Structure formats: structure tokens, C-alpha cells
Amino acid sequence: MQTIKINGLIFTILFNSKVEIDGVDVLGKTDFITMQIYIRKNTPIEHQRKILMHELTHAYIYSYGFDYVELNTETMCEFVANYSDAIIRDTNKIMEEKQDANRT
User: Fold this and answer.
1) Whole-structure pTM value
2) Do residues 56 and 37 touch, judged by C-beta distance below 8 A?
């Protein structure tokens, strides 16, 4: 189990065999009540990385208050300019730690 801190909020990252939203199978989800990010682990590692990056983007949007802002083109460009490097860095770190844990 891994954790990540985004703007003071701590999320737990969980790689599970099954991920659901309202009884429907999905590849990933971010739960803002429990502060958990779920990634389906029985997919290729490259796909897990993409799913993780997608879910981390949800977490960043929430953590920095963009979920309450009208997401027009200018707002999205500002978000990407400010946070994309951190999202990629966090994705790489989590995936490296996951792969290291799987080797032991």
C-alpha cells in the first residue's frame, strides 16, 4: 500500500484485482470520501500507469479546488501548466515503487 500527499491531502493508492463504481467494473477510481485511489492490477503494466495517471489527475483536480471551477480551455491549460510535471513525477514514483515491491 502506497500513499501520496497532494496539497496537504493524503491519498492511499491500492492496486486491486477488481475495481467497481456502483457495481460496474472499471479500470480505476478515486474515492474522495475515503481518500483512496484504486487501480485494477490485472492489466498490463503500461495500462496501469495510464490508469494511475488518470486517477491522480482527478486527485489533483480535487486537491487544488479545480472541481469547483468551470473547466474551459483556459482553465485546463492553466491546470496542465501548473500540475502536469507533478502528476507525471508522482506516477513514475508510484509505479517504480510498485515494481520494486513486486521484485522482492
Assistant:
1) 0.93
2) yes
